[in-house]
Amino acid sequence: MALIVLMFRNAVRNRRRSVLTILSIAASFCLLGVMMAMYGMFFLQKASNDQASRLIVRNRVSFAKPMPIAYESRIRMLPGVRAVTTFDYFGGAYKSRRDKQNYFPRFAVEPRMLYVVHPDYVLTEAEKNAFARERDACIVGKSLADRLGLKIGDRVTLVGDLIPATLELVVRGIYRSAIQNDMLFFQYEYLNQMAYRGSQSYAMMYEVLAASPAQAPGLAQTMDEMFSISDTQTKSESEQSFALSMISFLGNVKAFLLAIFGALAATVLLVSANTMAMSVRERITEVGVLKTLGFTRQNVLFLILGESVTLALAGGALGFALAEVILLTLRNVQASSFFTLESLQIPPLLALFALLLAMTTGVASSFLPAWSAARRAIIDCLRRAD
User: Fold this and answer.
1) For residue 42, what is the DSSP state?
2) Exposed e or buried b for every residue in 306-343, given b needs 16+ CB within 10 A?
């Protein structure tokens, strides 16, 4: 216990240096925590049964190129298909384009089929019937309604850009869901009438619900093979794979995040190593006194390594606390179409890895100066005057 008390006192004896070291490590671990949460959301988040059963069917060339609307009936006849609906993205603007608060995903769907494909969307029967009955009706997610201050009966105007239409919608339902809780849905037929005078014969995407998660991969392959000899070939993939393909437009996101991990780990190691090298160099004479009083090499090594690990763990804990504050703020921001920011959390396994990284960094950064000091003879330590 005496060694542990002495170790903690040594860690804070030069308070200015200790505070700056902890803050430097905390800054790195804060960014590391945010990157870990993003990595977990993109690549480690486990899909629910409903998510694993849903498939996105799009044009093989690009999701921006449409497919014939006749594909829907052919897909519906395949064994293993529980439901299928059009899933057309409508860009445009809601109020001001400059305000990011006004951005949210909006899709044209078939009202009756939406709840079959998305059984996790919870609405009352009255809301479902109103959405299906009224041509200009729309439904919005609970978090989106709260963010924009929307309630049932309010009007929402979407001014098209790529699609030549101005949609005047009326909120007829507010759905609740554990995922994808920040979107707006309106009738595909309404978009067809407003933009194409009822003559639209194409759809951008289809959402298909397989009978079970186990059947989804085979069904995706069957659909692609069925349209392989058509003029418009398809690419069918799981909802999660489709989301990852969207972020792949930014580049190799996984490699980018891993590169940041490596850079941050190296930064923490260098900061801690520099601090401990200066600290040990200033206390060589003190090490000689400790050895004169009976402290062994192991005691000296323990004191210096423990001091470094203490600073590294303090910086790591503070950094992760700051990361949690940032993630809490981000979780209150609007979600993307397929990745909900409500799941933006540091995975426990990665948090444990970061804790081990902090401890390893503390040991690695101070081992050489600690070993050198522990091995130095008493007379050599006491001879040091600087």
Assistant:
1) I
2) bbbbbbbbbbbbbbbebbbeebeeebeebbbbbbbbbe
- DSSP 8-state assignment for residue 46: P
The first and second tokens of residue 340, run together, are 């909900």
Region of residue 328 (left: phi > 0; alpha: psi -120 to 50; beta: else): alpha
Give the ranges where the chain is alpha helix by DSSP (H). 2-11, 15-39, 49-53, 71-76, 111-117, 125-133, 142-148, 188-196, 216-226, 239-247, 253-282, 284-292, 297-331, 348-375, 378-383
Provide CB contacts within 8 A for 254, sequence distance 6+: 39, 42, 43
Q: Which tokens hold the place of 33?
A: 């925590």
pTM: 0.69
Q: How many residues does the chain have?
A: 386
The string of pLDDT tens digits covering residues 215-247 is 999 999 999 999 998 889 999 998 878 877 767
Phi, psi at 209, each rounded to 5°: -105, 115
The residue behind tokens 């692609």 is 224
How confident is the model over 56-78, as pLDDT tens digits? 999 998 877 889 989 999 999 99
